[in-house]
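Entry:
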Amino acid sequence: MDQLMSALADPERLKLYARIVLDELPPREEDSPAVRKHLGRLVSSGLVERRADGSLSADPTVFRRERPAEIHPAVPRRLTGFFARGRLTAIPVRSSVRHELLVHLTGTLFDAERTYTEGEVNEAFHTVHDDSSALRRYCVSDGLLVRERDGSSYRRAHG
């Protein structure tokens, strides 16, 4: 419920949501950068759904859903606020919290005995967050992933 309220906290996004609920959003307006940005947040929060035909719908039952007791059982309790529906919603700014998150992700997503291509690393991170490049760079700079000098492969750091 917090994510829903957060998504509606922005006045422009709230107006856009109301227009979608009332079916008053012309399709050509969806292409404006400002609207696309707000739509992304409304869709990721579950407030708005894009149908197969490309149209948008708002389902009011989203407000009646029960809040899960624990967001994701595999996520350390201190980090659950950064996840919604099994996806990372924000990369922590504070370096100690970000490092804890990265330790969790590398331990969860990568086998210690395997070597990965950059594409495989990006694909793994993309399962939890859209900015896989940032997560990959943070992991390398924090020493959690080791990148070969030529950039051809990555492996989880031992230790």
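Residues 68-73 have pLDDT under 50 and may be disordered.
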